[in-house]
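Final report, Chapter 2: Outcomes

The project's central promise was a pipeline that accepts a single protein chain and returns its three-dimensional structure in a standardized token representation, suitable for archiving and comparison. That pipeline is now operational. To close this chapter, we reproduce one record exactly as it appears in the project archive, with the input sequence first and the structure output second.
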Amino acid sequence: LISVSPSELNEQLIAGNSSTQVLSISNAGGSDLEWEITDSGTLSGFNYDFDEDTGDWTPVTGDWSVGNGSYNVISQNVYNSSYIDNPFPAFEIESKYRILTDSQSGANAGFMINGDPSEIDNSGKWSDFYTIYIDGSGNLTILRYIDFTYSNLGQTWVNVDVFDWNILKVIYSQGYFDIYINEEYVLTFFDDTLTESKVGFKAYKANVE
């Protein structure tokens, strides 16, 4: 008699990442048990270290620049975004951000995900995309825009000093979004309305690098 618990394990990892899971196998039968774990393949994604140029990244709005291994924007009163000019079905993206100390209500920084930057409105927003961002009150917000109209997919408060540098990270695969702040897991949500498309940074009255 062979017992396996849990009945299956499943994990998708970008190259270089790791996950620890426990699988218990017992063999009460009359013969030895042989088993193996196989790799089903590497999750697609990207890893870009900014050295001297922006590479595949394309600014939509805002004054973006490369320096000291970072891709930087200083945002005052314009909704700024820049995207990588390659679609990815799965990826990990992270950036440092801070809200400007003299910012008014509405300041935020984060990501544009699975979006279409070919059309933007007067504020610089894309027509169709997900956005995941932190605002000046410490709220982590997830929105989905379709034809410039948004749906709120979730919001939670995070205990960080938004006027200091923080790291926002999103791991995406097949509609699942895992969100981390300063390497601490915050939440996972699922929505597959928009799948593979452009991915980028965004900032409004905030600094991003």
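Archive annotation: Residues 39-43 have pLDDT under 50 and may be disordered.
This record, like all others produced under the grant, will remain available to the consortium after the project formally closes.
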